[in-house]
Design a protein that fits this description.
The protein is of the alpha/beta class and 128 residues long. Helix content is 39%, strand content 37%. It has a five-stranded mixed β-sheet, sandwiched between helices.
Length: 128
Amino acid sequence: MSSIKHGLSIGLERSENDFFLSLKVVGKLTHDDYKTITPLLDSALTQVTDPKVNVLIDASELEGWELRAAWDDFKLGLKHNNEFHRIAIYGNQKWLAVSAKIADWFTSGEVQYFENLQDAVTWVQNNQ
C-alpha cells in the first residue's frame, strides 16, 4: 500500500506595507489548499493601503496542481496582481522554470525560478 504525501506550510510576515509570504508545498496543490491560502492573504492585505508582497515558494516537492487548484491560483493572481513585487520559485524540475516564465507574463511583479534555495531567498528579499 502506498501513501500519498501532501502538505502545505504557510508563513506570512508584515513590516508596515511590506509582506513576505513563504509557501512550502509537498505533493499536489489542491482546491482545499487555496481555501486556506486565499482568506489568509486577503485578510492581511485588506488591512493596508498599497501593500507590496514578496513570495518565496519552495516547490522542491511539488508534484503539480489539481485542475481546480490551478484555476484558484489564476484567480488569486488576478485579484492581487498589482500587489506582488517579487515571486521566487525554488525547485528542481524544469517544468517549474517554464511555469515561472509564464507566470512572469501575467504578474505585474517579477517572477523567477531558482534551483538553489539560498539564491531564491537572497533574490526575493532584495527589495530594490
